[in-house]
Specification:
183 residues, alpha/beta, Rossmann fold, 33% helix, 22% strand
């Protein structure tokens, strides 16, 4: 079974993070909700607390096929400030594993040089942070092993893109139909 780690920092955007968790679990993917602190209750940018599966130090990065970074503020800044997570993102990217980010979080990839020469998208107004990217206004961009998306309104498209790369286009379409989402 393929498995992803979704990384949560205080101030994450709830819909972006939890849509990925929900849709991916419905598709049979293993999903760990990982707190970048060791606190198992992490509060989103709109005051919704969610219990995590594990803290960062308990995450087994060898078993994840993808690292997912939700957006939100200050969640994105808190993710980027976590040196251990950034080392893992760099290692995943360099090793050809998938990295995915939505909303403001693709800015992290831009700052790390991951987007150079790739199509990418992000929350409107954050485009300058997508250093070296061909910036689009698409809901989701998949460029090699990098997935980016624009924000809360594209969270379902983002989650389905993750399913598509890990489970196939047919499974993503089946899930879209099951949840009454037009792709």
């Amino acid at each position: 079974m393929k498995k992803i780690g979704v990384f949560f920092a205080e101030g994450y955007e709830e819909i972006e993070a939890l849509t990925v968790v929900d849709i991916c679990r419905r598709c049979g993917l293993g999903v760990d909700m990982v707190s970048v602190t060791e606190e198992l209750m992490v509060t989103g940018s709109h005051g919704i607390g969610v219990r995590m599966d594990k803290g960062f130090s308990s995450a087994d990065f060898q078993e994840y096929d993808m690292a997912v970074l939700p957006g939100g503020m200050p969640g994105t800044k808190n993710l980027e400030a976590h040196e251990g997570l950034m080392a893992q993102v760099d290692a995943y990217y360099a090793g050809g594993k998938y990295v995915a980010a939505i909303c403001a979080a693709p800015s992290i990839f831009g700052h790390r040089g991951i987007l150079k020469g790739r199509r990418a998208c992000c929350y409107p107004g954050m485009e300058a942070h997508l250093e070296g990217a061909e910036v689009t206004a698409g809901p989701v961009e998949i460029a090699d092993n990098v997935i980016t998306s624009r924000g809360m309104g594209t969270a379902m498209d983002f989650a389905l893109a993750i399913v598509e790369v890990l489970c196939g286009k047919e499974k993503a379409q089946e899930m879209a139909e099951a949840v009454v989402h037009q792709r």
